[in-house]
Design a protein that fits this description.
mainly alpha, two-stranded antiparallel ribbon, 9 helices
Length: 270
């Protein structure tokens, strides 16, 4: 447990410095590059045997960095990512009866998921580091709420073939916890009212649910690949994918929804 706590503290410090130390991306982009490189390497361990893992890692890194330069393409990556997560919902509910999704196509899926998440993180950071931190806090609070409620009241299994410890009661508890945080921030910090408040609450609720899907999807991948953790780089925590699985789904979905709210005039940044 102490090793897990120490690793978490170090991660918080590194991420915090990269997010807030400079308005220039000079610290944040290298962190994203390192993160996506390690995540891509771990992804190769979850796929069917990949002949040249370094090639996949290089492709993901290059595509991600090039995509960061072309902001006009970001929304397309988020839409593609959301499409995969919608399909993933069906895959999780049908596992292990149907696993046709498991094959070489996981390479393309990994590329889209990782690039979509990284560009979404960078987009939110550009708006303000606090917007990216908002998604982090939202996911962490919902996850904590789900954990404690699930331990105390959990009875009905949510996806027993994928993650036996997760319950529907935990899901409701996590959603409720997250939405309490959202409501507090929306009213007392952002001063939202009316349709803007409603739309932002809905988007945040969807983001919370998508974070659960991200967690379940990675658990399903690990079960299909017959591995316990995606990696060992984080002592006490496993791999990078084990720590960001929820964010891989949550960040592009929130970024796309937030972008749409701005385009429709429902949310105006000040």
């Amino acid at each position: 447990m102490w090793q897990r706590i120490k690793t978490a503290i170090i991660l918080i410090i590194i991420v915090g410095v990269a997010l807030f130390a400079s308005e220039s991306p000079i610290l944040f982009v290298p962190l994203l590059a390192v993160g996506v490189t390690i995540a891509a390497h771990e992804w190769t361990k979850l796929m069917p045997r990949w002949r040249h893992p370094p090639l996949f890692v290089a492709i993901v890194l290059v595509v991600t960095l090039v995509t960061l330069l072309f902001e006009v393409t970001w929304v397309a990556w988020w839409v593609a990512s959301v499409a995969i997560w919608i399909m993933a919902l069906s895959w999780v509910t049908q596992f292990p009866t149907k696993t046709s999704w498991y094959g070489k196509k996981l390479g393309l899926m990994g590329l889209v998921i990782l690039t979509g998440a990284i560009t979404a993180m960078f987009y939110l950071w550009q708006l303000s580091p606090w917007w990216l931190m908002y998604v982090f806090v939202l996911v962490w609070c919902a996850d904590s709420g789900a954990y404690f409620v699930g331990r105390k009241l959990g009875k009905r299994k949510m996806a027993p073939n994928v993650s036996p410890n997760k319950s529907m009661e935990g899901l409701y508890g996590g959603l409720a916890t997250g939405l309490i945080v959202v409501l507090g921030i929306s009213i007392f910090k952002l001063h939202l009212t009316g349709m803007t408040l409603f739309a932002f609450m809905v988007l945040s609720g969807i983001t919370i649910l998508s974070s659960v899907l991200g967690d379940l999807f990675e658990s399903m991948l690990k079960r299909r690949a017959d591995v316990k953790d995606s990696g060992t780089i984080l002592p006490g925590h496993g791999g990078i994918l084990d720590r960001i699985d929820s964010l891989l789904a949550a960040t592009p979905i929130f970024a796309l929804g937030f972008w749409l709210l701005q385009q429709t005039g429902l949310f105006v940044l000040v």
